[in-house]
Amino acid sequence: MSKSKKLQIKTPHTYALLIMIIIIAWLMTYFIPAGEYQREKKGDQTLVVSGTYHEVAAHHGSFLEVFRAIPQGLISGSEIVFYIFLVGGAFGIVHKTGAFENGVKKAMHALGKANYLMIPLTMTVFSILGFSIGLAEETIIFVPIGILIARTLGYDALTGASMVILGAASGFIGGMLNPFTVGVAQKVAELPMFSGWGLRTIIYFFILIAAITTVMSYGHKVKKDKTKSLVYDLEQEDNDFTQSETSHHFSKREALCLMLIVLAIFINVIGIFTLNWSFNEMSANFLLIGIMAGFVGGLGFNGTFDALIEGMENVLFGALVVGFAKGIIVLLEDSKVIDTIVHGMTTLLADVPSSFVILVMFIFQFFLNFFIPSGSGQALTTMPLMVPIADLLHINRQMTVLAFQYGDAISNVLFPTSAILMGALAVGKIPYTKWLKFAWKLILLWVIICAVAMSVALLLGY
Where would you say this protein principally sits, based on its record (predicted)? Predict the structure, then answer.
């Protein structure tokens, strides 16, 4: 055996990595004092009362807590877990009809030599969904479609996954109409809903262009030399690297199946904004539309439900990752160290010069997302603490929303505690370490863009 092979380090399994993080979180409970803030109910929200932090009795728990956190995480994230299963099943049905594959190849043929435009077009579509309806967990379901598009173009699975993940993330960072982050944060800060969208739109374009450029550059390198792929082993294993770009027959039935999926997404958007739908209603809607697509696509009763189960099997790995990632937060919450972490990091801001406070808030929100990967949860926890600091330093409250928005959104595609990121990578069979190697430069660029934008906005009195 060669020396290089002996020194080769095997990438940890996704679940092994998450369990290691849970163990680290459990160990942290022995060194970080337990504490709590008082909270008060205002309308439908539970807000942290600033200045009420106090230490409480520690609750470390035995080593069994590490493994109890996993089923608790699955229970905590059950709506998302089953949403992934049912939507995955629905997409499995449509995939079985050949509608996605033949539709994509038809689009490739229609674009001709300009088929490389599928990358910016796809990423732009997902970014629109990101800044309008806060597309997040749903990205997990679309990863296989992104991979199909990428491989049809001659790229690899990482290109396809990044088209979906980074496309949606670009819009989520922009957040112009995102009710789950900007909407919640502005409500807590008592600002008009979605105010300041003009500046956010300008920054969004820079964010999206940076993401598209990164993905297209990597994709071009891979297409030119397959061995440059960061997931070359995966492509060889799947034996699916190069796919035919010839036009396949795209039937009316297949077109109708795609129309049904678009209809399902449209109904969900209407349901979210007008009927207060949650994951349960969206899951039911996708399941119904999926079954209808199976019958329309000619799969029949047995074929439809066989495809439903097959689609669920394809997202099993990613669905369960949600529970593992949620388990990390469950353990920290049960041990009552979350508020201590928030209190400690927030206290540091009191001694920082006002000109740097916003950037420090941005960094604070960025790293806090490791512990609180829920955007709305992080907003409700930190904004009541950030706003008073901004008021005392005569900084516009809108700036604190920007700091939260960018810190939370950018780190969503970095930290392994993000159930969305880990689930999407798991569905695409992409190791987390490979993702970091690909995405870290873009994440750093995004941080710089947002930091510069916030500094300029502060100087202009935004």
Answer: membrane
